[in-house]
Amino acid sequence: MKTHTHLSRGFEFSFPALDTLVLVEERGDLVLIRATRNSFSLARKLAFVRHLAAEGFISDEFRWSAPENPDAERGIRWVIDYTWLRYHPSFLAHSRRCLYRVIAGSVAAWLAMMGLLIWQSLG
Question: Cβ of 49: how many Cβ atoms within 10 Å?
Answer without folding.
Answer: 24
